[in-house]
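Review the following:
>
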Amino acid sequence: MKIKQQPEDFIVQELIDLNIAKTGNETYFWLTKRNWTTERAINEVARRCGVSYRRFKFAGTKDKFAVTKQAVSAFKVPAEKLKQVEIKDISIEVIGLGENPISLGTLRGNHFEIVIRDLVKDDIKILKKNFSKIKKSGFRNLFGEQRFGKGNTHLIGKEILRGYLENAVKQMICFSGDKESTEKLEFENFAKENWGDWEKILGKMPYGKGLDLERQVLFWLTKNKGDFAGALRTLPKHIRKLYVHAYQSLMWNQAVLKQTNFMKKYAPVPGFDTKLGKDSFSNTIRRFLENENLFLESFRCSRMPELAVEGESRKVMVKPTNFNIGDAEDDELNPGKNKVKLSFDLAKGSYATVLVDALFKVKIA
């Protein structure tokens, strides 16, 4: 089973609620992108408009290797200026004006159209069987792999929670993920060996490799040696908060996966205001925290309190709506195999990749 063999195999469009007005400080637009992260795409749009990236707000990040359409608001950026922006694999469609910046509250959910490839007959049997089960009962609402970046996002978050900000920066600069280029791996090893010589590390950093955030952090350290809090604060607050959220998500996923039978519809994503009970899920969270030498109070982020998270409740099982599955067809990218197209809507916060994974499990929990 393969997904995302090409960006067009994974199409996402936001389902949003916007109050459009005749006037307003916010210009709303659809950002459609291919092979761009949301952050990099909006950074480039801001640069072309000659304004700060911080003027742009959106409901959430979208996959890089996909075709995605999401709503963005731009504070005091004229529609005419946005319409003039031309960037490869990015298109902008102005929606209108309003007074409120786009936020997570603007988002109702997402519509997906996904082509699953490289299937054999047994795969299709499992897919059809699990399709019926999930349509009836739903699937476990785990946080998807996108939440964890290249594999270090939650590790950065853990160090922030522990107050070890140098370790957080080190995780950011030196972590080696899967499928990285030789050039990036060489740089990360070089950074480990020369840790503390910020000018030398910055000079070795490759350009055009998706290292914009790391470059900001290192540049700060060349001017302010030892100020790791300041270095991290060069990053937008929502980016830094993603690190903490990733660690919360890891804990929640692991606790859910250890449960054999959930009696409640919701389970707490841990934060400083979380009240744990005596149930199996709560006990799993307690053990996780103890093993990591953390406490619920750690989520106040004492070294960086602007990132504090109080916790929330998350639905354990979710059902896709408008859930449809196409017929098996010949797969032109994998001769001798089949492909199937899925379409469905998911509420915000739920992950299509988790649904796809559940569709191909022999047993659905």
